[in-house]
Specification:
The chain is α/β, with parallel strands linked by helices. The chain has 2 domains: 101 residues, 3-Layer(aba) Sandwich (Rossmann fold); 49 residues, no CATH class. The protein has 5 helices and 8 strands. Strands 2-1-3-4 form a 4-stranded parallel sheet, sandwiched between helices. It has a two-stranded parallel sheet with strand order 5-6. A two-stranded antiparallel sheet has the order 7-8. The longest helix is centred in the middle third of the chain and has 17 residues. The radius of gyration is 17 Å and the shape is globular.
Amino acid sequence: MIAIVDYGAGNISSVKKAFEHLGAAAQVTSDPQVIASAAKVVVPGVGHFNRCKTLNEALREPIMNAIRSGIPFLGICVGMQWLFEGSTESPETAGAGLFQGQCSRFPASAILRFGGHPSRRRFRKAGPHFEKAIRHSKIHEAINALPRPPRGN
């Protein structure tokens, strides 16, 4: 069973529906015992980094134990940022500290914006042909505006 960790961050139902569509057994939970017994763990998240306080208070131990024991883990958005020491979005909220560094927002000059809701159309500049490739693509995924820190930091 896949444990989808519910800690008050946003995209829980979308993640659950995606696993159902794939035919995978998944359970939304905030129960540390369910997380500890899961075959796989997903920490989703759309929202502000301060939501990670709930992860730190009640769910850190079973999630970190799962990761350390080699249980497959997927962190989505804030769920992935939580694995670092923290985020400039909420400096008072600690991350799990599995990876070194603070996640911080891309500078405005590094963001390309396309039509539609801004949170669904942010793309990091990646070369002169990037914008053209995006316009002709059927893939329209948001790139995290608070990326992981560069290696070595």
